[in-house]
Specification:
It is built from three helices and no strands. The protein is mostly helical. The mean pLDDT is about 80.
């Protein structure tokens, strides 16, 4: 802004006193002060409006960035989900192919031996046993000789 030193201000007051006279000087000073207040108020309003607009633009920019990140994450999630579905769809076909190969290699004997071996797939270790009497030797009950 305009820099006015104290000496310049005194000089302006003396010139205004000489030109306007002592009767009109107080009224002119009040009017000049009111005009300066209005100018400052208007300037402050303009500055505040510009700052608000800048803040709004910054918020919009941040919102666009967040939306772009969310869209990228959604795209990545969709791609991953599609890969999982592809693997799930391919797994039954692969299992059937492996079972067919095993049947071709081993023949029908595997079905007969499967009943004799423990069922490892379900965790049943005693599936091939006929009962407790076949594995444990007969002991007399305790307390009898």
């Amino acid at each position: 802004m305009i820099e006015i030193s104290f000496g310049k201000l005194v000089l302006l007051a003396l010139i205004a006193l000489i030109v306007l006279g002592p009767e009109k000087l107080p009224g002119v000073a009040r009017t000049a002060g009111a005009l300066l207040r209005r100018m400052r108020s208007g300037w402050d309003d303009v500055r505040a409006e510009v700052e608000r607009e800048l803040q709004i633009e910054e918020i919009k920019r941040n919102a666009r960035e967040v939306a772009a990140r969310a869209e990228a994450a959604q795209t990545e999630l969709d791609a991953t989900l599609q890969q999982v579905r592809d693997v799930q769809n391919a797994a039954p076909a692969r299992n059937e192919a492996v079972a067919d190969e095993m049947a071709a290699v081993t023949g029908p004997a595997t079905e007969a031996t499967a009943a004799e071996e423990p069922d490892n797939a379900t965790g049943d270790l005693f599936a091939g046993m006929s009962g407790p009497a076949s594995t444990a030797p007969k002991e007399p009950p305790h307390g009898h000789a």
